[in-house]
């Protein structure tokens, strides 16, 4: 991976806004009413354009915008996850959604996930979440959630090959020397219904073995692999009653072990990990503090760690790195612009945020990034303005630091 040896490098968390015609094409494809050859041509052209625009905006480590992950609506919080449903064998849709699942209660020594509807953030602010005009949202409710009904295996080889081919062609055309591609982590992959495996831990390891095929394909193509696994931090809000930090870390470590199992033998310097507390627009008063999860995160066998640091719930946590020991050979990608507000950050504020981290871990080990994916979270015009101000702030910081 690039580091910031002579200037602050810039990247983002993955998802970028899709053009209207691609969203429309995705919707038709999901309905089975699109010409596949025409769709693939549109997708290839769209990936080329989104990479070109990133480079023009000043992003030095671009992604493919996650355009190969179908998004049939402008507002979409799940494409980073639901894309995997078509790439895994033995999943069956049963007409239930995330919010239809039964609620489960934890007890001392028995920490379990509850339903999405039983999230503590949703319970505390139920009126706001149920008010369509409040601006508080987890996105449209889906009722096509799958269940695992047999042994998992990866069947997405053709799809990931197409994603890689589109992205590599776009990188070559734009002149970018490095690019990253996202893939779902095992713990998040396993947050679907399970009717086959005997335990949650067995299921998450099965997800790890299956998704490893995609991880290998991305790395073997010469790209940087980004693992998206918000379940590592976000699960905390989905446990009732609220667990202690110690109990939550015990609950989370098998999921980290499963991810490391999936990454075994793969080069750490080609892998980055994205941690977040969920990208929905809500109060987030029930997030686990960064200080309680940073050490488990650092046990993940990645060469860089991406995390939220620009929104008002987590910005103060830059101070965690006063005490947390970042290994000498690893990088961080703090979010210095946020998906959680329509306000476009000022470049000088972006530079100030970058400076907080460089003072603690060194200039060369900081890549300026976004809190989370911008696609489906903010209007496309705002998203692109945020990437531009990210690059402008990095340029200001670079003049100050180098």
UniProtKB/TrEMBL annotation:
Sequence ranges assigned to domain Cobalamin-independent methionine synthase MetE C-terminal/archaeal in this UniProt record: 186-388
Pfam families xref list: Meth_synt_2
Feature: compositional bias, Polar residues: 1-13
Membrane-crossing segments per the record: none
Domain of life: Bacteria
GO terms classed as biological process: methionine biosynthetic process
Renumbered residue ranges of the record's region Disordered: 1-21
GO molecular function: 5-methyltetrahydropteroyltriglutamate-homocysteine S-methyltransferase activity; zinc ion binding
InterPro entries linked: Met_Synth_C/arc (IPR002629), UROD/MetE-like_sf (IPR038071)
Entry-linked PANTHER family: METHIONINE SYNTHASE, SYNTHASE, VITAMIN-B12 INDEPENDENT, PUTATIVE (AFU_ORTHOLOGUE AFUA_3G12060)-RELATED
Protein name in the entry: Methionine synthase
Organism encoding this protein: Reyranella soli
């Amino acid at each position: 991976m690039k580091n910031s040896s002579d200037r602050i490098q810039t990247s983002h968390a993955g998802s970028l806004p899709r053009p209207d015609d691609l969203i429309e094409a995705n919707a038709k494809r999901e309905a089975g009413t699109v010409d596949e050859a025409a769709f693939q041509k549109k997708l290839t052209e769209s990936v080329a354009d989104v990479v070109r625009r990133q480079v023009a905006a000043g992003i030095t480590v671009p992604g493919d915008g996650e355009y190969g992950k179908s998004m049939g609506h402008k507002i979409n919080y799940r494409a980073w996850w639901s894309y995997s449903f078509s790439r895994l064998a033995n999943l069956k849709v049963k007409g239930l959604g995330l919010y239809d699942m039964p609620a489960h209660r934890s007890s001392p020594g028995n920490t379990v996930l509850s339903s999405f509807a039983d999230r503590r953030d949703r319970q505390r602010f139920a009126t706001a979440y149920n008010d369509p005009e409040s601006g508080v949202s987890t996105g449209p409710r889906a009722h096509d959630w799958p269940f695992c009904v047999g042994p998992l295996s990866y069947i997405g080889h053709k799809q990931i090959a197409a994603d890689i081919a589109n992205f590599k062609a776009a990188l070559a055309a734009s002149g970018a020397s490095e690019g990253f591609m996202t893939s779902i982590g095992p713990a998040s992959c396993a947050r679907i219904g399970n009717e086959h495996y005997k335990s949650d831990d067995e299921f998450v390891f099965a997800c790890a073995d299956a998704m490893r095929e995609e991880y290998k394909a991305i790395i073997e193509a010469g790209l940087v692999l980004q693992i998206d696994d918000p379940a590592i931090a976000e699960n905390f809000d989905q446990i009732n009653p609220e667990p202690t930090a110690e109990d939550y870390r015990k609950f989370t470590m098998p999921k980290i072990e499963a991810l490391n199992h999936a990454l075994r033998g793969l080069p750490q310097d080609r892998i980055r990990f994205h941690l977040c507390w969920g990208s929905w627009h809500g109060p987030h008063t029930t997030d686990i503090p960064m200080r309680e999860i940073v050490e488990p995160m650092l046990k993940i066998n990645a060469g860089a760690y991406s995390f939220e640091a620009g929104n008002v719930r987590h910005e103060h946590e830059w101070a965690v790195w006063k005490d947390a020991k970042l290994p000498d050979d690893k990088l961080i990608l703090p979010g210095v612009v946020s998906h959680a507000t329509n306000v476009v950050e000022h470049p000088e504020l972006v530079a100030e945020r970058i400076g907080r981290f460089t003072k603690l871990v060194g200039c060369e080990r900081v890549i300026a990034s976004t809190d989370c994916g911008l696609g489906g979270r903010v209007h496309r015009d705002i998203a692109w303005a945020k990437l531009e101000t990210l690059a402008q702030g990095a340029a200001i910081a670079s003049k100050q630091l180098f």
